[in-house]
Amino acid sequence: MPVDGSYASLKAARYACRIAKLLAGEITCVHVIDTPPLLKGMNPALVALYFSRVEKHAKKLIGDVKQIAMKEGAHITTEIIIDVPSVPNAIIEYANEQHMDLIMMGTKGKTGAKKFLLGSVASAVMMHAGCPVLLVR
């Protein structure tokens, strides 16, 4: 279950927890941090500072999802994936490597791409994932 802190992703987290509890399943919550193009070629200390701050925010977000799981009584593991060129590809690759049965995610995230109905990340994951994808809006 990829989360980005958007309303839709947290709503998907609540649904995933309820389903996992009903089916005695396990949830893996993933937050992916991509590498913004403007960081390429910058001072390594500034890049490290950027990733440190973004990772701190990601840990808070993951903590929020863990609290949702605890309230729902669902078992959850978490993963933060850092410094990737493509968020959708990282989600798909992680799901494939971990042999996930389902990817559940929100339809619109915090990408700022409002012209897309589903959101660019959700759309790409839905189109290219090797397992079923359940989108929550």
In words, what does this structure look like?
The protein has 137 residues and is an alpha/beta fold. The chain has one domain (7-136): HUPs (Rossmann fold), CATH 3.40.50. The protein is built from four helices and four strands. It has helices at residues 7-23, 44-72, 87-97, 120-128; strands at 26-34, 75-84, 103-106, 133-136. A two-stranded parallel ribbon has the order 1-2. Strands 3-4 form a two-stranded parallel sheet. Helix 3 runs parallel beside helix 4. The two termini are 14 Å apart. Mean pLDDT is 90; it is low at 113-117.
CATH architecture, please? 3-Layer(aba) Sandwich
* CATH 4th-level superfamily: HUPs
Number of helices: 4
Q: What is the string of SSEs from the N terminus onward?
A: HEHEHEHE
Side-by-side strand order of the widest sheet: 1-2
Summarize this structure as a short list of keywords or feature phrases:
137 residues; alpha/beta; Rossmann fold; two-stranded parallel sheet; 4 helices; 4 strands; 48% helix; globular
Write the layout of secondary structure elements.
Layout: H1 7-23, E1 26-34, H2 44-72, E2 75-84, H3 87-97, E3 103-106, H4 120-128, E4 133-136
Parallel strand pairs: 1-2, 3-4
Helix pairs in contact: 1-2, 3-4
Q: Brief description of this entry?
A:
By secondary structure, the protein is of the alpha/beta class.
